[in-house]
Structure formats: structure tokens, C-alpha cells
Amino acid sequence: MLKVNPKLRLASFFWLVKDGMVLDPIRHRAILEYLNQSYAPFRYHDMERLAAFENRVFAKYASAHKLAFIDIARLLPFDPDLYVDAIHNTYAGERLRAWVFFQHVLPIVEGHLKSGAWPRKVNSSDARPPTFTARPITFDCKRL
Fold first, then answer.
1. What is residue 137's predicted lDDT score, i.e. its pLDDT?
2. Which of 4, 39, 113, 129 is such that its CA lies 20 to 30 A from the CA of 51?
């Protein structure tokens, strides 16, 4: 079994674009403008491939560095009503993304709590924290 870094998680990236995607020109105007004006002349097919490539890179990086990978892109529904533009979520979309992420982080947190790895004991110290002493800085303004 792959031992993962307990302090870092990596998640995939969701880009609302698919080849052949059809959107309502009134309700999803911001998404259409974002994709068709900001990324012209790229086709939806090209952007979809780019997003998939990006997530393959993230997954491979997570595997190579023994990080937990949460594939949010695979788990989120493809629903334009959850997006302001092709990347940014509406309030409902953010809540759904957070819920999906929480569902995958919770077992990790529970495992650390059950094993005793969390919470970590903090050793108390009687030493005073370091202080900083002010020092004067002089310079000659005439030379500037």
C-alpha cells in the first residue's frame, strides 16, 4: 500500500467544457463569452483535452510524490447552472464542490485521529519567545 503524505492533498481541476456542449445563450451567456471570446480560436474539444491533460499531470504528480489525490473533476456534475464562467462556481456550485471534497477528506482525518497521529502533542516550553531590539539606521539623503 502506498504511504501518503498526511499533510498535503492534491485535487483535480474542473473546467466546464466538453466537445459538442450546448448552452442556453441567455442563461449561460457568461460561460459562452468566456469560452468563445477568451479562448478563441481554440475549440471545445481542444479545451476539454487540455483540462484532461492537466488532471493527468496532477494525478501523476500526486502519485510520484506520495500525495493523496482527490479527483474532484470526475465527481462533480457537469451542470452549467453551477458555474459563473467555465472555471468559477456559483454559490451553490462552491457548496457542492466543498461537500464532495469534504466527503473525501473526512476518512483521512478520521484515520489520523484513530491512529493517534492527530492531535499532535505540543511540548510546553518555559523559554521566553525571542525579542527584537530596534536599531537605528542612518543614511545620507544628500547623496541621493
1. 85
2. 4
